[in-house]
Amino acid sequence: MRGFFHFVKFMIEDHRKYIQHQRTDFVVYVVLNILIVLTLYYGVIVAFPLMFDTCSTPVLMLNYLWGVWLYVAEQSNLQLIRLRDSSIFTEGDVQSDVTTGRKDAVSRGTQGKPLTRTDRDSTISRRSKVPDSWHYCVPCEVTVPPRAWHCSTCRSCILRRDHHCVFAMQCIGIKNQCNFMGFLLYTAAGTLYATVLSFLIAVYIQGVSCWVWLLRNVLIFYVILFDFSLNNLLASLNFIGCVFSVGVLVYYIRLSLAGQTSADHSRNVCRKVPGRSMFSLETMREFLGPSPFLRVAWPFHEVLPNGSYNSNDMKRFEKHQ
Questions:
Q1: Disordered: where is this region (predicted)?
Q2: For residue 147, which of 137, 136, 162 has the smallest C-alpha distance?
């Protein structure tokens, strides 16, 4: 009886933790959407007409069309990240292996005993030592393929899991990796566009020195306390967003060229294919799919039916089968 109450207490605590994660993700998601609108508003509606006040109507129309495309591309990628779920239970190519191995995996992993937090911790510990093997996930009660990891927020194992993205309220995995990079690309493009216009206005119209402009944008509290205006605040937010998004985009391009996820990089797992350099376009094609740059730039690209595991991973799949 005591064991039953401990189990109920554990489930309640786990459910509260899950709800708390979802609430946090939702708040971040709403804030992100507000910032996207403010970024495009400053760059397209405020900064561009202020910088080029005598430009012709066709140029203004091109500016507005560019702003519309940036918003459509960012929102499309953001929503497709959520729709293209990389959960192990929605991937048809490995579904049969997972279903077939469920009964055996449960008997091997739990021996019919109730799950405890110690069981989960020990499973994660064993799993981290063999990142390239099929392993048993206690919470999902299935045997999952290499590079699939459990997400406590999504409550599922994610194929080729990269990380849980609080901005999209979804895990980044094998199906939505390109959309995540596309979102970074267009966020970087929008914030860079607004930042360049902000620099031109400050230096060439307002007569501010480059160092003062840089200091004003880096130290946002200086703008709030001593030089507050809505335009200065939006310029500072754009600058910070530009530095962050460009830096993360470059980081993920580097990982893609090496065939790595951020989880691989944090665990120092090398994905170098024999006979290739560490950073290779061929490795990037295997990681993201054919025409990887086009797939990143176009939000509505087709999801590959068999995922995009590299040649080494496919050999492990064939060995398992």
A1: 100-119
A2: 162
